[in-house]
Amino acid sequence: MLRFIFTRLSHMLIALFVITVIVFSLSHLTGSPIDALLPDDATQQQIDSLTEHLGLDRPYYVQYLTFLQNAAVGDFGDSTKWKGNTAAAVVLERLPATLKLGGLAVLISVVVAIPLGVLSAVWRGSVFDRMAGVIALLGQSFPAFWLGIILMWIFAVMLGWFPTSGYGGLSYMILPAIAMAWFQIAALTRLTRSAMLEVLDTEYVKLARVKGVNERSVIWKHAFRNAAIVPVTYFGVLAGSLLTGSVVVETVFAWPGTGLLAIDAIRGRDFPVVQSVVMFFAVFYLLANFLVDVLYAVVDPRIRFS
């Protein structure tokens, strides 16, 4: 088990190193931040002085090593748009809003998709199964931003049940959370259904039914316990996708999280904040998948030796 954990951890660190190279390279391809920091009538002396102060006159490999050293301790520099704040402080200030919205979206995805997938497998070929298939098809077809606008139009503008946008309590979170969770509900439903269909056709499930075991126990205790390996594997992708997908949804609903922060930082060419957001998303996504790999090995010991 320790060897398995060490192998997965080393893979995560390699992926993180590659991400730092990509983030550093893209930040330089988008142009120099000097243009955003100085006025149009700045003198050449001012430009040279700021370039030297920011270290942009040094070779790229030196700049990257400095960036890597600072990133290891969470230092991405000072924000150029939000004066007087470090980039990490700006991201951490917006982080709770994103975690609240993403947590609710994950909860909605699991609560809706797991029963829907299990019951559609149990009642295979029924009207319920066909309805679940339609929901899964539509869920994977609708873009999150389009669904968010439609939900806002119907439930906020026409019916007035929820606020159109902004930050607040649960009523402000329902529509954006549904918009974020809809695609994942579809994917998780299909995965759960296919896993349950495979398990329900096994000999030990048939034997349990022959012995007269209660059908509810057969489904949830015997079948779902073994079929849950597939949804558990997808949970890392689910958590990471919902968080990174917050960029679009938070922009549509003006939810002040890290997703909207990333858009504002890109518009303001605030490279330190953009780098901080991207690195945070990357670390969160990698950690989620690492924890799922470990949990997968606990659930199915065969994985440890594969």
UniProtKB/TrEMBL annotation:
Pfam families noted in UniProt: BPD_transp_1, BPD_transp_1_N
The ABC transmembrane type-1 domain, residue ranges: 95-296
Topology with respect to the bilayer: Multi-pass membrane protein
Entry's Gene Ontology cellular component terms: plasma membrane
Localization per record: Cell membrane
Keyword Transmembrane: yes
Keywords, sorted A to Z: Cell membrane, Membrane, Transmembrane, Transmembrane helix, Transport
Origin superkingdom: Bacteria
Residues annotated as transmembrane: 12-30, 101-123, 144-163, 169-188, 232-257, 277-299
Single GO biological process annotation from the record: transmembrane transport
InterPro entries referenced in this protein's UniProt entry, alphabetically: BPD_transp_1_N (IPR045621), MetI-like (IPR000515)
Protein family according to the UniProt entry: Belongs to the binding-protein-dependent transport system permease family.
Name by which UniProt lists this protein: ABC transporter permease
Species whose genome carries this gene: Roseobacter insulae
